[in-house]
Amino acid sequence: MSTTATPSPLPIRPANPEHPAKGSAPTTARPHPKPSRPTTKLLLKINDLSTPGAQDFFSSVNALQALQSAVTSVLTHLYPSAPTTPTPGTRSVTLVLRSMDGVAYTTGKDIDDDHKEVHFSTSYIEKIPAERKKDEILGVITHEMVHCWQWNAQGTAPGGLIEGVADWVRLKAGLAPPHWKREAGGDWDAGYQHTGYFLDFLEGKYGEGSVRRVNDNLRDCKYEEEKFWNGIFGHHVGNLWEEYEKKLNKEKEVEEEPIIVEKDGDEETATDERKPEKKKRVKSSEEKDVPSYLV
Question: What is the pTM of this model?
């Protein structure tokens, strides 16, 4: 038996496409995959399928498409640069359809706040007029989906601002109900569409992405009103609100401006609510060179 040691064979290294061996043909490097947007598990829970509201829900919308559309609206308007822009770590959203008072609310699950639940009242769904049912369902889901994704200054942001951002996204998604309107007066953070339209005014005045900056600045710090608004827009929120109110009041004055008309040499005024009937004035022989006109 030979006692001569046999050398172990050298391991064969796999070819590296980025560093080809000498003399070998160059290979094309594989492109790095583009990062994708956050993916969130979407779930549905129904306490009672037999309720009229639950049946109305399923006859009006496709549940999966409604939830996917809501997520898309949130990411489009608040996180268009995701995933490069940090987003909350929302891992799942469960839509819970059940009979309850009110309209809807969003909460985190007990096991983990990154798992959200949107509770939607089937009692409310049942009462929505048939012609509005689909858009109202989509609008409510979109509003609540914002709460699953928005920042809140570690729980210190004004509730009215949180609700205003949610209704602003609903507005931008084209799901504003017909009764919404821009209103002056009251506090800027009264919430919902009242604050949502104020945010839309800031978006128009300071450029696209302004509301996104509001949301982004609620991420890592606690809310301090003066520092927060001055840091984004260079003005206190009270001054911004006053500017918004002046704009609305000026627009209202233009709409209500009286119309001056001439009739048989006399002047008469009329508002938009009472407009005189227009009559054609017949020119006399002394007015041959004066064109006829409507009064």
Answer: 0.76
